[in-house]
Specification:
MTERF; transit peptide; MTERF_sf; globular; Transcription termination factor MTERF6, chloroplastic/mitochondrial-like; single chain
Length: about 375
């Protein structure tokens, strides 16, 4: 029975390869690779065929590859993780355990990547295995451990596993030194590295430009808002920044208005123009808010239109129509920016005796299944 299954599998593999590769000869040559990937590495058929186009496995290589697979399992990789790793990085099958994988794995384990932390890191970014241990992985990890606890290093590396890939001495270290020299508080800097590691992985000249620009806007590096503004400024090109300025000007805002909003709520300028346009059109034309109200309350522009602003406005309209609250734009602004639990308590659950279906209306509105005229 087992022989029949294997013959059928072999036949299926050859048929798939004949359909996807240029000639029958190349298909037959690849059939061993596909079968090995299926049976020894656990890849699904489609993935095995796709991977076989990127590398070939010779029968003479299987002993070495089997040793590599055994090594991965001994370091916490299960069958599914090994199959996923090979599909993402097929060249790992050609890596030598003693010269390549073992030294890197040992160093990572010694520095806290224990248990499933190691497979998780490698699967997030298999390219870490292609980087030099001495010139990339060691300097980056050793520098981070001077600033962060082991748990925080693990958290930062998981959020951006490329943290261990890049040239630490050419990017991370000078960027951190620049922020420290500008007076960014140490606890703020470490939180930035842990929760937004990509920020310190930018080109050094770009970081210097962003810091200089934000300081010129009047935001002091000791202000907690400085790092938020830095994240936004780093995330966009100068041309994108200028386009955002022009976008807000098209709604009648002055440059001083825009910069005032940026200093108080930097992430407003990180939102897409499509989202901002939809929100501003609604707040100006439907809700009839004054531009000054939005400028004074920029968090209005941070909320999702379909999931927050429109459903809450629908609740507001119902309560006003029942004369349970007054139509007051200040109250509406407050209502939109409240936390979800507080909003439900103050503007939905509180009025269920007067409007029994208010909670259902609110949830239906959030799901887009009801529209209040």
């Amino acid at each position: 029975m087992a022989n029949i299954v294997l013959r059928n599998l072999h036949s299926l593999v050859q048929k798939r390869l004949l359909a996807t590769l240029p000639t029958p000869t190349s298909a037959l040559c690849s059939s061993f690779t596909v079968e090995y990937l299926l049976k020894s590495c656990g890849l699904p058929l489609e993935s095995a065929i796709s991977t076989s186009k990127k590398l070939q496995i010779d029968k003479k290589q299987t002993h070495r590859i089997d040793s590599m697979l055994k090594f991965l399992k001994s370091n916490g990789f299960d069958d599914a993780q090994i199959a996923k790793l090979i599909a993402k990085c097929p060249t790992i099958l050609h890596y030598k355990v003693r010269n390549n994988l073992e030294p890197k794995f040992n160093f990572l384990i010694e520095n806290g990547f224990l248990g499933q932390n190691l497979p998780e890191l490698v699967l997030l970014n298999p390219a870490v295995l292609t980087r030099s241990l001495d010139s990339h992985i060691k300097p980056a990890l050793q520098f981070l451990k001077k600033l962060l606890s082991t748990n925080d290093v693990l958290a930062a590396a998981k959020r951006s596993s490329w943290l261990l890939n890049i040239d630490s001495e050419g990017t991370i270290q000078p960027n951190v030194a620049l922020l420290q020299s500008e007076g960014v508080p140490f606890d703020v800097l470490t939180k930035l590295i842990v929760f937004q590691p990509r920020t310190i992985m930018q080109n050094v000249d770009r970081m210097a430009y962003a810091v200089r620009t934000i300081k010129n806007l009047g935001i002091d590096p000791t202000d907690p808002m400085f790092v938020r503004a830095l994240r936004v400024m780093i995330s966009m090109k100068e041309s994108t920044w200028k386009r955002k300025i022009e976008f807000f000007k098209s709604y009648g805002w002055s440059e001083d208005d825009i910069l005032s909003v940026f200093k108080r709520q930097p992430f407003c300028l990180a939102c897409s123009e499509e989202k901002l346009g939809r929100l501003m059109d609604f707040l100006l034309n439907t809700v009839k808010l004054e531009p000054e109200t939005m400028i004074a309350n920029p968090t209005l522009l941070m909320h999702a239109f379909e999931k927050t602003v429109l459903p809450r406005y629908n609740v507001f309209k119902i309560l006003v129509s029942k004369e349970l609250i007054n139509r007051d734009n200040k109250k509406l602004t407050w209502l939109i920016t409240l936390g979800e639990r507080r909003f439900l308590d103050c503007y939905v659950l509180k009025y269920l005796n007067e409007v029994p279906d208010l909670l259902e209306i609110y949830h239906s509105s959030k799901e887009g299944t009801i529209e209040i005229p």
